[in-house]
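Why predict the complex rather than its parts? Because the way molecules touch one another can change local conformation, and only a joint prediction can capture that. The input here totals 225 residues.
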Amino acid sequence: SQKIEQNSEALNIQEGKTATLTCNYTNYSPAYLQWYRQDPGRGPVFLLLIRENEKEKRKERLKVTFDTTLKQSLFHITASQPADSATYLCARSNDYKLSFGAGTTVTVRA
Amino acid sequence: DAGVIQSPRHEVTEMGQEVTLRCKPISGHDYLFWYRQTMMRGLELLIYFNNNVPIDDSGMPEDRFSAKMPNASFSTLKIQPSEPRDSAVYFCASSLGRGRSTEAFFGQGTRLTVV
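Output of the joint prediction:
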């Protein structure tokens, strides 16, 4: 079966450090991977999309990489702030559907 | 645009009762998705529509679940009869559907508790 996995449930880091989250996929090669942020009691909010022919995508302090050899996407939050504390979800695009990983909860300590 | 609007935000019902969740997608979006989120299973796609037509309902867990989209601005997800294991947060999302690169816009969700 096709799976997308985020292999860390929680990540605690000090303010100012870089948070790195991992998203792995198996048994297929998605054309696109999307990353979303979810705050408690709210719906997911889109952050970034990366295509399989792109190595890296950036948006302000966020960076996403896509390694089709390793079947992995890395999501980086640089110069992290307490306001970055949230759950981050990766999702593969298959046709028009999104299939989500379980998410990684990031807590940034001041 | 106000974004995707879901109602109610919270619903508490007794086992066996019918529950109807409502969604208003973003105007102009031609794809609508219903997701369910639980701690155990994460965010699962239940069903999605394109131009008001159901395209894939393979994620609907049982016949107790049904969804409709009578027009481009309204969709419902109905559970009849409801069971305690249906307790979850249900999200509606919409997208422009311009290829697989299109982002989804989510509503605030409906937290359903079946007692």
